């Protein structure tokens, strides 16, 4: 089922106050491994993903999983850990495309210059970038400044080569009390080069860093992002999301819009933050059967309202609840391809 079809089917559930169950996209954590130590990395309980080793599906079984997911949604978000830690990442992305899926890769980008196939097989490349200063980046990622400089070189490589590969580049910044000016510079960098941009607040556990709530400079930064959104820049997130992370307002979460799959193929139910992952999708043979078995074991989805401000949950939940804003977002992105023209990005990132 496609993004638009599932979105429209979900509207009926939302209209009568039920949880929408049709996935708009899947998020597949292909690995928990990562060579970096980003200060804000958290699995929902304050631990870095790299500190929670999980067995990974081998290439054959990962391809099998992707084929199963492709029967239920047409967009695959590949994340981690650091996905580039998997030497078979190119094959997995190519297989997802061969199954009719659009691919969204979330990465810090370290090592991209040596793996040009990554760009060729990614419809959208989301690069985590919180500063353009190597010394400040080194402090954030917990690695030497030389590693930060390499990440910036890989960023420049991606920006230069993405148009020819047909890949849309999005810069993803995490706003912390200490890097607000840095995020502004990342926003300007994206604007000047016609790149996509999105921002999310630093998460402590499941909630935004409480220091941001009363920070006038943080509110001004989000206000600047909102203004660029109104002006037509390629800022991800409907206006309701941007207001939500500015004011930390409550929202009703719909976690099954983006089901999360662990490296071992198990489905987090109802979301990663729950930490419940008892049912394997390959073993059940379909996402729907895995969901039903998870629900049988763990019960119905709790009615969460504003308990987390994580981009993927908050942005998608609000997108589903505001169809007019979603339509406008889709039209905006359809006009913003990697070369300034039309592309498939609208459907992969709406």
What report would you give on this structure?
The protein is α/β, with parallel strands linked by helices and 350 residues long. The protein has one domain (3-349): TIM Barrel, CATH 3.20.20.70. It is 44% helix and 13% strand. It has helices spanning 3-15, 59-69, 89-98, 117-120, 134-141, 145-165, 180-193, 210-213, 216-231, 239-247, 281-284, 287-298, 311-321, 323-334, 345-349, and strands at residues 26-29, 75-79, 102-107, 124-128, 168-175, 196-201, 203-204, 207-208, 260-261, 266-268, 279-280. The strands form two sheets. The chain has a nine-stranded mixed β-sheet with strand order 6-5-4-3-2-1-9-10-11. A two-stranded antiparallel sheet has the order 7-8. Helix 2 (59-69) packs parallel to helix 3 and helix 7 packs parallel to helix 9. Mean pLDDT is 91; it is low at 340-350.
What descriptors fit this protein?
disordered C terminus; 11 strands; nine-stranded mixed sheet; alpha/beta; single chain; TIM Barrel
Shape: globular
* Alpha carbon gap, first and last residue: 16 Å
What oligomeric arrangement do these chains adopt? Answer: single chain
Structural category is alpha/beta
In total, how many domains does the architecture comprise?
1
- What's the alpha carbon Rg, rounded to whole Å? 19 Å
Q: Count all strands and give the number.
A: 11
Main sheet, how many strands, which sense, barrel?
Answer: 9 strands, mixed
Helix content: 40-55%
* Name of the CATH class: Alpha Beta
Spell out the helices and strands N to C.
Answer: HEHEHEHEHHEHEEEHHHEEEHHHHH
What is the number of helices?
Answer: 15
Mean pLDDT: 91
How big a fraction of the residues is strand?
5-15%
- Can you tell me the CATH topology? TIM Barrel
Describe the strand arrangement of the main beta sheet, using strand numbers.
Answer: 6-5-4-3-2-1-9-10-11
- What would CATH call the homologous superfamily? Aldolase class I
Given as residue ranges, the uncertain stretches (5+ residues, pLDDT < 50) are 340-350
Indicate the CATH architecture.
Alpha-Beta Barrel
